[in-house]
Design a protein that fits this description.
This protein has 233 residues and is of the alpha+beta class. The chain folds into 2 domains: 4-92, Alpha-Beta Plaits, CATH 3.30.70; 95-216, Alpha-Beta Plaits (2-Layer Sandwich), CATH 3.30.70.120. The chain contains 8 helices and 9 strands. The chain has a 9-stranded antiparallel β-sheet. The longest helix has 15 residues, at 185-199.
Amino acid sequence: MDSVSLLIAIVARNRLSQLLEIYQEQKLEVNLIALGYGTATHATLNMLGLDSTEKAVCFSFVTAGKWPAIKRDLRQKLRIDIPATGIAFTVPLSSIGGKRELAFLTQEQPFERKEESVMQGTKRELIMVICNQGYSEPVMDAAREAGAAGGTVIHARGTGMKSAEQFFGVSLASEKDIIYIVSATNNKNHIMSSIMEKAGLETSSKAICFSLPVTDTAGLRLLEEEDELSETH
């Protein structure tokens, strides 16, 4: 597939409205907001003239063709390069679960679909699922049926997107769950297919899933030993 990335921007909460204005101007429609806190010391905060470490974390989706203009606006309009203003970075997606979901995530952005890309040598991938809040269990039931070991859920809120609600039946102006599932690369498609079939856009869960490459892991020793055992037989 063509280069589509997860864009993560972390800004002070009082800067969130400016960030979303830039995204709106650039027609970056799919945005999910989670709240967090920075970890700077009081001495650092005083030195920088900051009163709070409250942060907003914004998850969006950007194509290679759209990213340069957004990056320019973040620098010129949000002054994101100034210390303590914020940070934005992109992580390339390796796959998106379904053509309809791909259209949903990239609407109004220049895009040419190519073959799915896999980072060479990666044994695991991070599957991320966005679904209606309160529907993480049906998603995880579908994932477990396909061999997933478990997942982690965080809460977020979507922004606007009238067109998405009209054409895809998905409202992002509501509370959402974001689910993280680490999967073996060779089982990723099976898990994503199960989620789309049993908890996808046609269900009450309204789940959309995509994956990102994982270059290394710690804490999955038992799964890694199972993988090595299966490879020897």
